[in-house]
Amino acid sequence: QWLSDRKKRALQKKDVDIRRRIELIQDFEMPTVCTKIKVSRDGQYIMAVGTYKPRIRCFDTYQLSQKFERCLDSEVVTFEILSDDYSKIVFLQCGRFVEFHSQHGHYYRTRIPKFGRDFSYHYPSCDLFFVGASSEVYRLNLEQGRFLNSLQTDASESNVCDINPVHFLFAMGTAEGKVECWDPRTRNRVGLLDCALSSVTADTEIDGLPSISALKFDGALNMAVGTSTGQVLLYDLRSSNPLIVKDHHYGLPIKSIQFQRQLDLIISADSRIIKMWNKDTGKIFTSMEPEYDINDVCLYPDSGMLMTANEAPKMNIYYIPVLGPAPKWCSFLDNLTEELEENPESTVYDDYKFVTRKDLENLGLAHLIGSSLLRAYMHGFFMDIRLYHKAKMMANPFAYEEYRREKIRQKIEETRAQRVQLKKLPKVNKELALKLIEEEEEQQVIRKRKQKNLPSLLKDDRFKVMFENPDFQVDEQSEEFRLLNPLVSKISEKRKRKLKILEELEAQEQEEEEEPEGKASDAESSESSDDEKGWVEEVRKQRKLLRQEEKVKRQERFKEDQQTLLKPQFFEIKEGEEFRSFKDSAKKQKLMKKTLGDRLKLEEKLGTLNVSDTTVGSKQATFKLKKSEQQKKQQEAEKQHRQERKTLRRSASHLKSKRGRGRLFH
Question: Would you call 208 helix, strand, or coil by DSSP?
Fold first, then answer.
């Protein structure tokens, strides 16, 4: 519907599927909305009214195309075809106008006192009965060309009306939920039905008073009434109680009621769903939910074809072979429906791609939401396929290569599947899978005997990952596996021996002798002792091998360490910092990791911190700052200088004393 006519024609030439599509009537649609649809009594013409602009379109079934189109001054509420063909039509319009059309076009126009909602034509007297927003039923005689005395009813307003085709009883549905029946000959009311009260059952939930929204006669005695709350009541005119009450369970007004006499079905429709159900039992035959809201339903006479007027330009045509044969003008449908297979296929749009909001975010096109490039539909959007391909190429340039590789892989897998099927082993843990298969084959004898179907590890979904994910690959060179392997092998040997014993027992059941209770056979005890000894020896061997392998690995590492030459590495020291050694930095890092309490205790031991209690009760801490290397060197130089001066002074004083002693001696 988004494509232009030119593009549609181009697609019809190229696409084989489009050429095979069945278009019964060419351009069977309205510009915007279709409100009413009817078929002429001879079955040749289908007439539909809609908007916008208000118009009527007549389609000729013999030519399978549109015959004419006429535009009107105001919207049509309903219309009636008086003749067998399209030559006499009456329209009830919104502005209280009643317009008559003949074969050539507009013929006459008149007006009724109140706004009309429905009308019916009484053939014996040529009277038109109009009901609407009034308590009166207006009568217009087409033979005399004048209004007659109206019928005075007890209703405030009337919504629908109908005339029985057999005995011409006139019935009208009121806004109060009642149906009044009148005899046109005497112009007297002959019956009153309270449908609103009868429609309320134990299962129904009603907020307000239901009014009558649809009315249809079937034969001389049956009448179906539709309410504004979604119930359909089937009456026998001889009884005031309904024969059956059918609820649509949507709470929407019933728009149309049709009778299908071949299968005794009633076709009732509201704006959302069309239901077909048996009029005797009320059992659902089938139901249809079109994409758009329904305005009217028309059943083609004596056939299985159904047409709907929707809140959309396209008018739908349904063909149900069970209801009846196809009409004469499209009898080829019977052959087609026999050949068609009921294979549901998803709708494919060649020029548009459906994307969700998440897809748009992945492509980086979320900013286009609300623009004309995206068309909102259901839970996502339709976008042009060319724009989608461009955006995908920019988001993932290698997408085509990945798609091509995947297709090639699928083709190879298909060819492999055609070959002779062997025992398929998984890619991961092949030995374990083969062992499990062998064990299953060996245990078939026991399973047949016990008649129990035990689950297989290979087929169990819980252990599927163990044979698919490479992370679960069993490492046979690991220490744990090599130490457990003797035990596993011995268990498998035990199983084989038991199976052989069971087979021998089955073959020699008569010659078997039972041993006394409480005593074990010597053979079993000797076998168990031999198994234990053999297992211990194998475990010791595996441990010796593991030790030897560890020694070899150590020697190889030692050789590699000797061969490797350590190259000197140079580091740059920041300005203002002095390098002492790597050990000092390591000590600093360890010290910084310690808590404040541990650091205080360490400083107390070194003597750089002194903590003492005061008289007030508080504590006093005195710190001694650490001296830098330059300060230490300076102090050592000063200390050495002092010692040198002391030694010089001592030597000088010693010399003076010697001189004084010499003088005294002389």
Answer: coil
Eight-state DSSP code of residue 538 = H
Do residues 603 and 594 make contact, with C-beta atoms less than 8 angstroms apart? Answer: no
- The verdict on residue 238 lying in a domain is yes
How many folded domains does the chain comprise? Answer: 2
> Are both 384 and 241 inside the same structural domain?
no
Looking at the structure, tell me whether residues 285 and 384 fall in a common domain.
no
Residue 59 lies in a domain: yes
Encoded tokens for 297: 């339903």
| Residue span of the structural domain in which 185 resides | 5-342
CB 181 within 8 Å of CB 167: no
What phi, psi does 498 have (nearest 5°)?
Answer: -60, -40
> Are both 164 and 19 inside the same structural domain?
yes
User: How many of the other CB atoms lie within 10 Å of CB of 8?
Assistant: 11
Burial category of 229 from C-beta neighbours within 10 Å (exposed 0-12, middle 13-18, buried 19 and up): buried
Q: Are strands 316-319 and 305-310 parallel, antiparallel or unpaired?
A: antiparallel
**Do the domain assignments include residue 115?**
yes
Taking a C-beta distance cutoff of 8 angstroms, is the pair 201, 245 a contact? Answer: yes
Model pLDDT for residues 199-230, shown as the tens digit of each residue? 776 566 667 788 999 999 998 899 999 999 88
Dist CA 41 CA 102 (whole Å): 16
Asked whether residue 404 falls in the same domain as residue 301, the answer is no
Q: What is the pLDDT of residues 534-560, one digit of tens each?
A: 667 777 777 777 788 888 888 887 777
